[in-house]
Design brief:
alpha/beta
């Protein structure tokens, strides 16, 4: 009999798919979820009754202590997600993401937990992606200036000569430079878990998700991902607004692939500590994604994606990953097809 695995945030978009896959493999699961109103309008009906259920807030020490009792592994998905609407969101992001993680780690330490911990991290910890100049090689561009963005100059330039830069894949050893509230809290989660690991010897695997999409995405909220926002627009017959010129490169990875990566990290014969990009390995522009989803949704001409030139503070231009380390050490390779995944998302019900 396998030991029980705790999945925090197990009612959420990614966490629920992890729960389903663990249960399908015959592994007992305990789900903890706060059912935040920004992501849920109640307990979702897709939660498998085979999983033990705790409705509670991880920031509460009593809830954290109850949740970790008797666990042999922890999959920490619980977080407030999204870019952050404004600086007024700072306390909520830090509370849910960093204080919640701290309470979880304290409860695990008090229980002398000796299993493995898998953390849901994000590609946002990198900030901008990797770039190369034809003359100066790999360089680190400065954050994009508002006056450049207002003028439609969206691509970063070489900080030494001002020439255009070529985007490259980002590996796990890239410098970490979060550029939003959410990104800062995700990096803090990694740091907290690494401190915990050094103090206890518990192996920690941080999975840096790229742009996850698929069934059970939440409806259009300020905290939703771009695929969810576009899908909500098409469902309402509205033209989705594509920011900048739509040329932003991202790696869109299917939620079932992300769930497989988590289960691999949780159940591999030996722990695989470290940070890993979880990505498809094939980047697409945001406009390409919008057009693929429009076609799959059968959107009318009036609802065709509209490139607006708008921009958001904290957004980065290009970021896409090298999946090589996850393949080599974790044995994870994405399997889902992009076009088929977009067609599936177009037909999937939107989560309240």
């Amino acid at each position: 009999m396998h030991g029980t695995i705790l999945v925090t945030g197990g009612a959420g978009f990614i966490g629920s798919h992890v729960v389903d896959l663990l249960l399908a493999e015959g592994r007992p699961v305990r789900v903890l979820d706060a059912l935040l109103p920004a992501a849920h309008d109640g307990r979702p009906d897709y939660i498998d009754p085979a999983a033990e259920w705790i409705h509670g807030d991880l920031r509460d020490p009593g809830v954290a202590e109850r949740a970790v009792r008797g666990m042999t592994a922890v999959c920490h998905q619980a977080a407030m997600v999204g870019m952050g609407v404004d600086l007024g969101d700072l306390p909520d992001y830090v509370g849910h993401n960093d204080l919640g993680t701290a309470q979880l780690l304290r409860a695990l330490a008090a229980r002398r937990f000796d299993g493995r911990l898998v953390l849901a991290s994000s590609m946002v910890v990198y900030g901008e992606g990797r770039y190369a100049c034809a003359e100066h090689g790999v360089v680190a561009p400065a954050p994009r200036a508002p006056e450049d963005l207002d003028a439609g100059r969206f691509d970063p330039s070489c900080p030494r000569c001002g020439r255009p830069l070529e985007p490259r894949t980002v590996a796990e050893d890239a410098p970490l430079e979060p550029r939003s509230v959410y990104a800062a809290t995700k990096l803090a989660q990694e740091h907290l878990c690494n401190v915990f690991s050094r103090a206890t010897g518990v192996p920690v695997t941080a999975l840096r998700y790229h742009n996850v999409y698929g069934p059970r995405m939440p409806r259009d909220t300020p905290y939703a991902g771009v695929a969810s926002i576009f899908r909500s627009a098409f469902a309402a017959g509205r033209a989705p607004r594509v920011f900048e010129d739509g040329g932003q490169l991202r790696d869109f990875v299917h939620v079932r692939d992300v769930a497989r990566a988590n289960v691999r990290a949780l159940t591999a014969p030996d722990p695989v500590p470290g940070a890993f990009n979880i990505a498809s390995g094939t980047p697409h522009t945001v406009l390409e994604m919008a057009l693929a989803l429009a076609e799959a949704c059968g959107a009318s001409a009036e609802a065709a994606p509209r490139v607006t030139g708008e921009w958001r503070p904290g957004d980065v231009r290009h970021i896409f990953a090298s999946p090589a380390l996850a393949a080599e050490r974790l044995g994870f390779r994405a399997q889902e097809d992009f076009a088929a995944g977009m067609a599936e998302l177009a037909a999937a019900p939107l989560r309240g």
